[in-house]
Structure prediction request, 122 residues.
Amino acid sequence: MVLTLGSTPSWAAPATPPCEAALGTWDYVAPSKPGRAVVTKLADGRHHLVWILSEAGATAAGAWEGTCEGSRRTWRILFPSDPATLGRKILEEFEVSGDAIRFWLLGPDGKRGPMGGARRLP
Prediction:
């Protein structure tokens, strides 16, 4: 008698949705500039991002809030490193693999800009 099981055992944990997998504290890695980001989710579903970059004596920081659907987040700049960007909306696309994330800001034409990367902190 041969017993065949499906490709996914019933005890396997379900995959974490991308929006949930992208939450946490992250250290930027190349090609990103050195820095750190903290991404949280509020009870109403909004995501918040606080980030800081520091390189060669220059520091930039910001805070954004947004919504997440699939592997895209639409951010609104709350606290900008450049005051001219206050309130601007930014579309980000991301891919999470374990404790690594790659992300791209999308241009007005929908094309990906330069890739950024980060590793999750424990």
Notes: The two ends are 47 Å apart (CA to CA).
